[in-house]
Amino acid sequence: MAPPRRAATREEPALRPAPPPAAVRPDRPARRRLPGVDAARAIALLGMITVHIVDPVTADGAPHPAFLWFAGRASVLFVLLAGVGLALSTGGATPATGVRRAALRRRIARRAGLLFVLGLACGTLGVPVAVILCHYALLFLLALPLLGLRARALGLIAGAWLVLGPVLVFAVVAAAQAAVGRQEFFVGGRLWLSPGPADLLRPGLLLADLTVTGYYPVLSWGAFLVLGLALGRLPLDRRRVAAGILGGGATAWAAAGVVGAAVLRAPGTVGRVAAAIGTDPVETALTLRTGEPRLALLIPDPLWLALPTPHSGSVVAAVLAAGWACAVLGACLLARPLVGHAALRPLVGAGRIPLTLYVGHLVVLALVDATGLDPADGALLTALVVLSLAAGLAAELSGRRGPLEAVMARLSRTGGERAVGGR
Known about the structure:
This protein has 18 helices and no strands. By secondary structure, it is an all-alpha fold. The chain has one domain. Helix 1 (35-53) crosses helix 13, helix 3 (74-89) crosses helix 9 (218-232) and helix 11 (269-277) crosses helix 12. The two termini are 29 Å apart. The relative contact order is 0.15.
């Protein structure tokens, strides 16, 4: 029988034996799904839904436990797993090279464009949610030049970015405040809503919001995507690697938590923040635990860089969230026998259709607002979690992509690239 035909553009040593028919061709590497990664992605998604629905403060004036657990962390895990996904789809531990890498970069760039358009469309829903999709798109573009790097180089970049990104945001905001005034820049230097089509008419403000002043500033959030790329370049199916991710993440999470707690307890912290944001000390103490955009008014006080507050953008908050995200991913990878159990198929399935479920929950929230319904937070959250898991189970049983995932996959490929690389 004649050996399998190989692409004419690929040169091989004359003495290299042809692979058996069942072997995976090098230009079409199989992308093996990791249930632990999918489970972690579902946790991130359900955590974001939780933060979007529950009130940060309970009726008795205490921070909501679920909000504290997921606020500023679930979205970081979501971005980190986007980096893991990019790494797995571009070669895993062995980055794609040559023609294949170029084709994958073009495909990812098209996907970023589609995500940006979808993000703008979601911005028209008018829901009180900071939609992350436009930021996602910029992060994907940011990753393109890094796709050829291996885990060590990516890890070094991510570590430096994790610390220097918030410092750079601090410096840019401080300079802008000095130029136009602190309050003026705070009010006029960001969109305050999720980006929508009309914001394309304000490109400068849109770019400032996406990169520096908004809810997910790419200037600092890029670290989480690069960290995910680094993790995705590791052999994630090995227990030792998973244990290392869990241990390293838990250590960083704990260390940043200790530093953050010490900062919040330090004499003068609450007073300095209260004076900057204009709230009384009691409200300020609560705000420092739950988060509030007005914390940006603390800049140029360097105390801002040490706040552990969710979405504050500080160095401590970044390390805290990144450590938590790594710990969750490592735990899910280690729990492979448990994650593979039939009882958890809905969770794993939900992690395989994240875009459909993310946009779907925004549409549900918009419909609830439009109909004037006022369900209790617990009832709405329960309904969305049940619907998400049911959709995940349906995706698992059918073996199909989610609707939006399928559309994205189709539109991000060109006819000439369908033969380049697997799913």
